[in-house]
Amino acid sequence: MLLAALLAGCTSGGPPPDPSERRARELLTQLSLDEKIQLVHGVGEVPEGAGLIPGIPRLGIPDLRYVDSASGINLAGSGATPLPAPIALAATWDADLAEAYGRLIGQELRALGIAVGLGTGINLAREPRNGRTFEYMGEDPVLAGVLAARRTAATQQEQVVATIKHLGFNHQETRRFSSNSVVDERTMRELELLAFEIAVKEGRPGNVMCAYNLVNGLKSCESPYLIETVLKQDWGYPGVVQSDWVLAVTDTERAALAGLDEEQPGSLNDFVGSYGVQTFFNQRLKAAVQDGRVPADRLDDMVLRKLRTLYRIGLMDRPPGPRQPIDREAGHRLAHQIATEAMVLLKNDAPAAGSTPLLPLQPAALRSVLVVGAHADAGVISGGGSARVPPPDGIDPVPCTEPERQPGPEALFRACATYYPSAPLHALRERLPQAQLRYLDGRNAAAAAEAAAAADLAIVFASQWTSEQVDLASLALPGPTTDPTNHPYDQEALIRAVAARNPRTVLVLQTGTALTMPWLDAVPAVLQAWYPGVKGGEAIADVLLGAVNPSGKLPLTFPRGESDLPQPVISSTELDVVYREGLAMGYRWFDSRGLTPLFPFGHGLSYTQFAYSGLSAAAYGRGGVELRFTLANTGAREGAEVAQVYASLPASAGEPPQRLVGWQKVKLAAGERREVVIRIPRERLAIWDTGAHRWRVPSGSYTLRVGGSSRDAGAQSTTVRR
Ligand code: BGC
Questions:
Q1: pLDDT per residue over 260-282, tens digit each?
Q2: Would you say the pTM of this structure is higher than 0.90?
Q3: Mutate which of 45, 64, 75, 118 to test ligand 1's pocket (most atoms within 8 Å of Cβ)?
Q4: DSSP per-residue codes, 84-115
């Protein structure tokens, strides 16, 4: 019926169907029932990558290999580039870099003969203890959506399919197959679904992956609301909805009728032995179609979506080929650039008794430097799980012993962190040839403190490993009681001990999410480097020494303590995860409650200063606003500022105090002033009308503020009416 309706639609005088539509429909008529079934499920676990749908050579349909590509391609031995984590990409606030990130992943997937890259995750950071926060792009739907769209489109220009994931409300790993996100319609639409809406409409992904968790009582891969109503009907999504990997589907009919188009990893015999789980889109789906429980045209629709996507993105005309070498130099250059642009200078005070901020380092004044902790002599850390990218030469510079665990779906991934051999210590040595650099591993805080007292400067490295499958118990730096595998000593005690003996102490953080910092007052300078990727050590040294002026801004709020978060703990027993905070997610929560964060959303310092002035607003497009203002670099060196626009809606809208509606990253020479124009489209001012089930712009007065963070005291503001 559905296919008939689609076909009828083509002859009724509408726009001519695009060639991929016509070609997909023609090809569909040539497929047998078995071939159609073959195209809607994977074959189970495969030796290389995450999944496979075998092609149909007689019809020119290529083999479709699926590989994770959240921060680069997760394929051992491929030499693919480990990029900085997506949370770092988000910290650049730079859509051009998101495009470059996506393009590189597309090029490398192509070179490796892989058809589908399983990356961009855009689940919002509702819960910063979520172990997968590093794989996503922060807590704001517009920031995450816009960057994901640019990244996705760029990957697909290289003629590989990009997957956006995980639809939706996949915000914790605790009981990840059975937790139930309980969330109201308006909150869904204005927050997480808005990120997906932007990414889907502007990025046009070939695939959208539904999630493991339940949403309002239904598995998200079996949710007619999420898949059929929102994604396919409201947003007109023409691509494939694929399942997450195991335990995402529980029932053939429910999933097929809700709109799921493909099951992964699937199996050849309805059972994945290694996981001990059933699969539903092979013989079970065939039987359901044969006896009419799933209409034949639903199966045709699944296949049509796949074929249309393959034609549109170019895989039918240019199938994935044999493996080619990767352009490692180009990849590493981009990884280096993104890492430096992602770094967020959280704090940069003058050390006690001084008047100049501690950073950037002044090489001439440094004869002896202590570098301590976090394997800074060996490399930089990365996140775990499916988003992990193996070290390019297969050599992890930090030895680690995997702990004993019970096998099963909950123990799929390594518990040892992966490091890339880009040692900050070596990069610092290269850049500080005249100084004596001493390294201590941090296990002995007293010895480190002694060494610090004798040095001109101490640089403490601290890290936090996070991974799919495991949430953090707290946002404190991990140590021997919380992550003995990767962090066998007390990192907080080390920081305090060193800083107590040397006021010139810099802290460099490599973490995948927000951190609490009870030790912050003791340390004058803190640089957040995230998981900085394969050239992370060099990038850290560049920023510490001022070869690159930091310009990253936080894509998520850093709270003072977990008790300031909407949910005090992630329950290990309650299956219902109730979004009681409603619209007040992330900075919206801190603003609504009048809570002072440790570092607000959008925060990030520079080695120069910026001043905003002369803000004015004019009408733009249909109901949008054009803002103009002058941004001046008032300091003594070149730098880039992310000018951020926040809107406060009329009180009648019932919204949190402010929302991000636009931004621009502006590079200015020392002393330069420039007029900046930021256009805010009408839809950024809209709220979701739960009565009419559509977006609406409330009438009344809107305050627009432009500044360097969500809490910038120097922000300019203006008011417009709608
Ligand atoms: C993850 C997905 C990933 C898939 C394939 C799942 O466990 O949730 O994000 O793409 O595995 O590796």
A1: 999 999 999 998 877 788 999 99
A2: yes
A3: 118
A4: PPHHHHHHHT-HHHHHHHHHHHHHHHHHTT-S
